[in-house]
Write a structure and sequence with these properties.
single chain; 414 residues; alpha+beta; Arc Repressor Mutant, subunit A; 3 domains; eight-stranded mixed β-sheet; three-stranded antiparallel β-sheet; 25% strand; globular; DUF6997
Length: 414
């Protein structure tokens, strides 16, 4: 029996139930988990997981629709946009702060999970500055609750749906809820922010404490805190109140000091990289490391990408020799595990050594004439070569920016 994709399964559902016509008449359409599964046998929890807009079924994307859980096993499809859009770069000045002293069990330059990043943000005083007062961690984890709201004039009455908070911090005047992510996403589902806020506003009614919510992105070494605002119908990121921090660091490493490596450290049996955003490559590397049994599906769900794009990013990591695939599971290689133990400066130095051991990349870095035989090793020719060079040039700019944040000393590496 031929395997049916999620998009094909949703097309069958929309056709069978005349969903577009029903939404046109009633403003929304409610569908049960059983109804979703009975045509093609696909589990509703997988068919309805849309943490990012890119994960919406094509039939919903094409018709401006979305799907949100309203009860356990019941979902509402409507012409709404339940995603918060975030700018890629911090929209404020990045404040440099000193690394915490007397902390040896948590390295501020080697954070591998959202909880660790939040903990160091609390220890260093970032959170007090973001929240406007001293706070303590009082909420973390999952629960179920009830709440109601409107989005683009469509009502949602939520009952028994899972609500998760990465970190909730209570002070004298406020309760601050944080949704944390390692790496940048251009959008996230309001379920991750609005549901916890509305739930805790109900729980704290009459206590005169303001409930506020923030998106927290740990992007390489940058800590970004972006508040969001819900006006009763539309939700937006408030970038003009964003705060961003970075720990002070000093490195002797610069790209100018890099010498040509006599040994090629990349795997030339893997397609030449075609992923411009190395920040996302790094974030996917960290997310693979923190999952117990990561798969293509589980990692793709974490990011604002589709499966085809994920293959591009995973191939970069495989090309660098830091991860492998075995069946459906992804795991770090010995090299990947070693790099994971390094702080971010040393890890990036190793990334650079690996990447620019490839003669094609080194020639691009130094603006040298390319050897056509190197391109033949990847079966690259014609206009494809220029498209691949765009990725290399983007990486060069990325690493130059990263290493210029520190204060390089004079000296030669290798």
């Amino acid at each position: 029996m031929q395997k049916v994709s999620n998009n094909e399964a949703w097309n069958h559902i929309f056709d069978d139930l005349d969903i577009l016509e029903e939404i046109e008449k009633n403003g929304y359409f409610d569908i049960s988990a059983e109804e979703i599964k009975k045509r093609d046998g696909k589990e509703a929890r997988l068919m309805t997981k849309t943490d990012h807009k890119e994960h919406l079924p094509l039939v919903m994307q094409e018709n401006g629709l979305s799907i949100l859980a309203i009860k356990n096993g019941l979902y509402r499809i409507a012409k709404t946009d339940p995603f918060i859009y975030i700018e890629k770069e911090p929209q404020c000045e990045i404040k440099t702060i000193k690394q915490p002293v007397d902390i040896t069990t948590l390295d501020p330059l080697n954070l591998k999970s959202e909880s660790a990043a939040l903990d160091i943000a609390s220890i260093s005083g970032m959170l007090d500055e973001v929240f406007g007062e001293a706070t303590n961690l009082t909420i973390r984890g999952r629960l179920r609750g009830e709440l109601s709201f409107c989005l683009d004039s469509v009502p949602y009455d939520i009952e028994g749906v899972q609500i998760e908070v990465d970190g909730g911090y209570e002070g004298q005047n406020s309760v601050n809820l944080v949704e944390a992510k390692i790496g940048y996403r251009n959008n996230i589902n309001i379920r991750q922010l609005l549901y916890p806020e509305l739930f805790w506003k109900t729980q704290l009614k009459g206590q005169r404490k303001e409930v506020k919510s923030f998106v927290f992105y740990y992007q390489d070494d940058i800590f970004r805190f972006i508040p969001f605002y819900y006006d009763g119908n539309i939700i937006t990121a408030v970038h003009n109140q964003e705060k961003a921090f970075v720990f002070d660091r000093k490195s002797s490493f610069t790209l100018e000091l890099l010498e040509k490596n006599k040994t090629i450290l990349v795997d030339r049996t893997i397609p030449f990289p075609q992923a411009n955003d190395f920040e996302k490559v790094h974030a996917i590397f960290l997310n693979i490391a923190k999952e117990e049994h990561p798969t293509k599906s589980s990692v793709t769900d974490e990011f604002d990408i589709v499966a085809r794009q994920y293959d591009y990013y995973l191939n970069v990591l495989k090309w660098m020799g830091v991860c492998q695939e075995q069946g459906s599971e992804i795991f770090l290689t010995e090299r990947g595990e070693r790099l994971l133990t390094l702080n971010i400066e040393k890890r990036f130095e190793e990334f650079v050594r690996i990447i620019f051991s490839e003669p094609i990349c080194f020639a691009q870095l130094r603006k040298l004439e390319q050897n056509e035989e190197d391109f033949k090793a990847y079966n690259l020719s014609g206009s494809t070569i220029e498209r691949r060079m765009q990725s290399v040039r983007a990486w060069i700019k990325y690493f130059e920016k990263f290493f210029t944040k520190s204060s390089p000393k004079q000296g030669r590496l290798f």
